[in-house]
## 1
Amino acid sequence: MKRKYSKIKGLLLLSLLTCWGCAIGPKTETSDRSYLNHYNVQHEVIALHAGIASASPLASKVGLYILQQGGNAVDAAIAVQLALAVVYPQAGNIGGGGFMVMHLADGTNRALDFREKAPVSARKDMYLDEKGNPVSVKSLAGHLASGVPGTIAGIFESLCYAKLPFPKLIQPAIDLADKGYLIEPGITDDIGTVDSKYNTMPNVFDGTHHWKTGETFKQTDLANTLKRIRDHGRKEFYEGETARLIVEEMKRGGGNITLQDLKSYEAVWREPLTFSYRGYQMVSMPLPSSGGILLNEMLKMIEPYPVGSYGFGSTQAIGLMVEAERRAYKDRAAYLGDGDFSDIPVKKLTNDVYLKTQMSDYIQGQAGVSKSLGTGKQQTESMETTHFSIVDKDGNAVSVTTTLNMQYGSQVVVGKAGFLLNNEMNDFSLKPGTHNASGGMGGTHNSIEPGKRMLSSMTPTIVFKNNKVVVVVGSPGGTTIPTSVFQTIVDIIDFKMTAADAITKPKFHHEWLPDVVEIEDGFSAETLAGLQKAGYSISTVHGSIGRVELIKVNEYGQLDIVADTRGRSDTSEGY
Ligand code: DON
């Protein structure tokens, strides 16, 4: 998705004008089930009390509806996660997994891991050919590509912080699946083509109908699955009829998830990864995501330098940040994996002295060198993960990134259950020293083991100043996720940008190997020439870097809610 600045500015201005009206005007009564109405995409809203930014206008509307019905940020997060499985099946899911970072108004911060796990029968070499070379396609498409899904376990685990009864939270998703929603050009129209693209799907969503733009997309099988979960809870997914259908699907397609794998799946509360940056407190996701650790490493590596005074987009600022990215991503490949399976030196990697030492060979105006541990290969990133940020009227905040991994995951729909399974097994390092499809260079700590969680890059993060939430942020984009979050935070804290600018200004990405700076359109010719003179190899990205959903508390205490214009459908809602 190429970015068009004038159009974006126009859109932002327009939404600002319209949304100021609804934010400070009389509170409009929400008619019940208003989320079923035809939708509008709006990238920015300023709200007085509460709001949400997500990749889907319908899901954001569901979030707003729940917030206005008396739900808190956790209620809204549960309803939005379920709605995304219906209205954004490219990435929203009940057949995948993700992470939630939560701040409760009483001051508690929590991090919930509902990442998928390798089935018990998974083996280190399961995607290698007889010569020991990775056969990535087996970990990307079809029944062997899926980890044991964690989303439903995550939802029920977080329910203890919700206020509304679960049936109320799942009802919008049921309605949207049952009654359907309009397939919009450029927004949901690829649903119409998904069945012809992927022949591994025995039964696309609900059957044989080829959905087209302008039709109402109904998912009866999925609606029935959601109704069973409404009536019988978590157990239904992991031990009941849905579990039976998943296992039946596995048998049909030669997959390896068993009833025992499903029964033994648990979401896990982790100690959030916390650190400070220039007087702000960061709360982010720990292992099995690399996201929080990378964010910590990168921010701390640049903290001793006056990056704000270099100016946004300057050769100096980009050079410094690229060097921090290079060093952090090297650590990702060398050390990171599921901390439940190996001893990962997180304390050392996030130690201030270590990080300072890492930058001791940084020379301003001179590109560093990435010494290869294996072969580096440029990856095309896709955006098929999704993030949403929510703040409620009481000051609770939730940052959730959830994924099937690539677009439509493994492409396998669970027959008669109507939902897609993930292809998260590709996030393991199939062979140390090779990249996965999300761009991650794999090390031995991330090799496949039964019951292990694959290393992620998802970086749901909440930023505080004086113990008050100031930013809720996250993004999809594979290994570009930590850099997108890193740069959004630096744009806000160091370059003093507004929320809208922090989203729309161009981003760049370096991940150690390949030794290339990927860069979005929008930096000056002078900056690019300066980087080349310093010795950087520059590659213009064809898509975009990140798709950040951001809530920032502005200087008047209002919520500036911005959904990334890199995604056509990303929408902010608030009141
Ligand atoms: O967990 C991860 O880091 C990946 N599964 C995220 C994938 C993503 O953002 C989309 N594609 N590259």
## 2
Amino acid sequence: MPQHIAIIMDGNGRWAKKRGLPRSAGHVAGAKTFKSIARYCNKIGLKYLTVYAFSTENWKRPEDEVNAIMNLLRDYLKDAENFKDENIRVRFIGDRTPLAEDIKALMEKNENDSKNATGLTLYIAINYGGRDEIVKAVQKIVDSGVKAEEINEQLISNNLYTHGCPDPDFIIRPSGEYRLSNYLIWQSAYSEFWYSDVLWPDFTEKDLEKAINDFSNRNRRFGGI
Ligand code: IPE
Ligand code: IPE
Ligand code: MG
């Protein structure tokens, strides 16, 4: 059983296109899948789940699509009240600076309200980019005035958005794409990967179960023998 699963929630647009629906309908369906998969991960006792919801590159999309995604995020954050009894600790990773003020406030509220939860820790990546994360970590390190020889891997890890969280053991990308798209590029150094042609809105607990089964049969060597 992995300790930390990271998912690239991809394929919402193609799911909608296949049905002759607007891309935003794919994001609505994807958000539903996200909620049920997060709940399932909590139920099976997973410690950490990180989901890629919006990348630093996704601002390139048409404004109405970006707005639709931001509105879904807003709804989710408001809705979170209803899931309080689920014992899920929610954290957000990524650069919040350009987000709407009300969304930033809701993100903080969700983090605060859930900070003592002892079940799944759910990281939601919003305006997240792995390269941006590393640039910001380097800036913080330089600002702190440490000497070059004091810089090591641990110090860099400690200055990433994910500080305190173990690296993902397992990265899942549905939708038939075989790339990281700037996701957790530092943290994924030794992650196992799992790809699938299923589009994210169609992704089920069964698919996750299958992936975890596959993971449990892998031989991780970390450079050893
Ligand atoms: C993932 O689905 C959601 C986000 C990137 C926000 P896409 O919207 O990328 O779906 P496809 O890849 O176009 O099908
Ligand atoms: C990665 O998916 C980002 C999220 C799922 C949030 P994209 O759809 O943006 O990735 P590319 O553009 O296909 O690499
Ligand atoms: Mg995509």
## 3
Amino acid sequence: MISNLNKRIYYFTFFRKYLKERVFVVVLLNILVGMLDGLGLTMFLPLLYIAAGESFKGDADLAQINNWIEYFGIQLNLNTVLLLLVAFFSLKGVVYYFKGAYQVATQQYFIKTVRLASINSLNETKYEYFAGCDQGQIHNIITTEIERVAKACQSYFLAFQQLILVLVYVGFAFTLNWKFALMVCAGGLIVDFVYGKVYRKTKAISRQLTDGSGKFQGLIADYFSSYSYLRATGTAAKYRAKLDAQVTEIENKNKRIGTMSVFLSASREPMSIIVLSAVIAIQAFVLKEQLATVLVSLLFFYRALSCLMQYQTAWNSFLGVAGSLESTEQLINTLEANKQYTDGIRFSNLRHGLALENVSYSYGTQQVLRNISFTIDKYETVAIVGPSGSGKSTLISLITGLLTPADGRIMADAMDLKEWNLVTFQSRFGYITQNPVIFNDTIFNNVTLWAEANETNRSVFEKACKDAAIWDFVKDRKLQENEVLGAHGINLSGGQRQRIALARELFKSTDFLIMDEATSAMDSFTEKEIQQTIEKLKGTTTIIWIAHQLSTVKNADKIIYINNGSVAQIGSFEELCNENPEFKRMVDLQTIS
Ligand code: ADP
Ligand code: MG
């Protein structure tokens, strides 16, 4: 019971955190509705006496109500009773409407706030955390789980509202007839006991369901990324078996939750009637009380009990989705804990250059970079070469501040990256990766990242496309720059994807252009074209070029040769050819092939 109360308080504080004083407004409005309803119902008592033609002066309870009403200068007769009845219930209707509208707005506000909070913290989280976490799980929480949080919010408020009504009715009941009130409590406790078992079970299954659908999302994400491989190799069926098992598990859990909730709603009415009949029997045969008071008492009793049942149904369906509240809060907390440092001096543009000083980095226990030191001057073209897996891409992630060095430091304009505001620093980078990002949007938006389609932007767009050797392709489209590229650029060739990405980087003005094997998917003719474009940029922007094909970086000002996570040598192409036999061997091999 105590831990139960703790849980209820925990959920309340969860909602309070996002809703602030709105929670109390909801509570107050609900109490008001209950009070008006209670007052209205109380008016049935004098009505019953008037209907039976009896004087109600003799009944102690009723005399009290009479005194109370006369206190306001109203004489109790059929007219005034009917008027009061209409007044109380009309007012209740009005307040009920405002309460409902306020509640809906509050719920929607809550969902919006939680959604934005999780997206926001995802935006600000350290890349290192994101790269290492279960992304399927995060994806699931932000899409499916938050939907369930919305449902949880709705049920929670419904349960809360019913609980308040129960308290108000019980309060009225106690003032009218305390014996009756005791019976309400007894009936309520019995019901609570019977239903308590079902709730606990639903809660446990709900938690498993959250885990299960997270797993399912992860599997689906994997399935999509490996789709063409699985289809091409005829291995899709094997993967399907895994998916099938997960889907069946989710089906079973949902079936169990559904069955329990059906049981609850089916048993609600019989339960009410059983308890009700028991109370009438006690009132009439044991206490031998008059039936008029019993009838109005019953009105309260029936209302209170049905509120209690509704409360329990709502609470049960809340518990069915409460697992989502916990996992969503956990996610937001974890993301917050892994927040990227966002203070620091704004980086407007590069003045002198970058310097890496004894930088080392490890993924877990695997050290991939050791004691890397070199400088990149402003407007220099630097090539980073080395065998695949030697740590080149990791080095780029360190330079862009996505990863932070385990040892050593990275300086931009003689100041540690830690002291610059990272987002402003990162906005100075153009970055083309091995797998460039293509959004499911028009060519224009893909290149300009949703810039306004005005005269200036269009001409910059055209120039960027021409420089990236993609203009002919754009002109050939039926809708030209308004043609939508499929998700992940599925209808583009690797070379086209990379040229779109290059156009995007050329569109914005940046200090750095990073090409991480950006031309690796192009045919040698296109590669040559892009190479010429980049050559033209030489001396006007700082270029960091990672290329597998060593001939593409022949003209770089400086080549940094990385082998096995360390700098093997730094120098010009000629210097490296002359002084490093390993490098020379790589060049020779590529010239032959
Ligand atoms: P390159 O770009 O030179 O091919 P990478 O920097 O991509 O090399 O990778 C260097 C090493 O780090 C490889 O052994 C790779 O397996 C490992 N690695 C890369 N990314 C991760 C990651 N997110 N988690 C763990 N290991 C990684
Ligand atoms: Mg790489």
